[in-house]
Amino acid sequence: MSAIDPWISLLTGQLPDEEQVRLLSEGVAELEAFLESRPEATEDVLEILARRLDGKIDHQTWATVDAALSSYLGRELAYLIAWVAQPEEQMERLRELSGYAAPEAMAFLGTVLGLYGPELERAYLCWNEIPDDWRVLYRDVYYDMLNQRPHIRLRIQKYNGETVTFEGHSDSILALASSLILTLRLAGIPDAFSQGRLLQFGEEVRELFRLVFPALEEEIDQFFDKLFPEGQAGEVEGETA
Question: I want to staple 196 with a disulfide (CB 3.0 to 4.6 A). Which of 156, 191, 221, 236 is the partner?
């Protein structure tokens, strides 16, 4: 087994807790030794990140950053930074490391995240994704007093950082949703969709139908309960939009 396998297991969430503590302890010890041997390391790493994160962040940025850090720090320390820089978990992971890392190592990692945390997070999120795929959907729904009907604004952020806005009344957005469903049907095979996503989609359609057809709530629930038995709910645990 290669020396990097435990780090890959750590990054994919497959390493047991006790092994995780051991690996991270070894990692911060190696970082401390590196910082002691190279007093200029913090400045060098910040310069590397400044160069590699300069400009547009896309699906290739993380691989470039990771290769540069690996060339300077070594493969294991580059993996350590990758673990600390995980999206939405940076501060929590810094706190976890503080239990067994020396102040010098914590200062180094804190400086890296303080200056480039958001950029590293964005680069990691875009890594190996389709640049034009959607990442986040923001929605605003309000009542148009002039036209006496709801008005909907959708902002879709893509992995390449671009944002697309759609805006219209309820019927217009419903027509868009119908077109999207028609497009999904063109996939042609049931296996094109995961069970978790189908259940998530079905629950949203159920709630929409219950809103539009309140007199038929019981029949609607019976239909969707038959489509998605309660025992399948666990399959979507942890799924996010």
Answer: 236
CB-count burial class (<10 Å; 0-12, 13-18, 19+) for 105: buried
Angle at 131 between CA 162 and CA 56, to 5 degrees: 55
Mean pLDDT of the chain: 89
Question: Are 73 and 81 within 8 A, CB to CB?
Answer: yes
Tokens of 73: 């720090």
Nearest in space to 124 (alpha carbons), one of 56, 67, 81, 61:
61
**Which residue, chain included where needed, has tokens 């009907």?**
149
pLDDT in tens, 131-143: 888 889 999 999 9
- The answer to whether the beta carbons of residues 68 and 135 sit under 8 Å apart is no
| Phi-psi label, residue 239: left if phi above 0, alpha if psi -120 to 50, beta otherwise | beta
Other beta carbons within 10 angstroms of residue 211's beta carbon come to 9
What would the pLDDT profile of 69-101 be if each residue is shown by its tens digit? 999 999 999 999 999 998 888 999 999 999 888
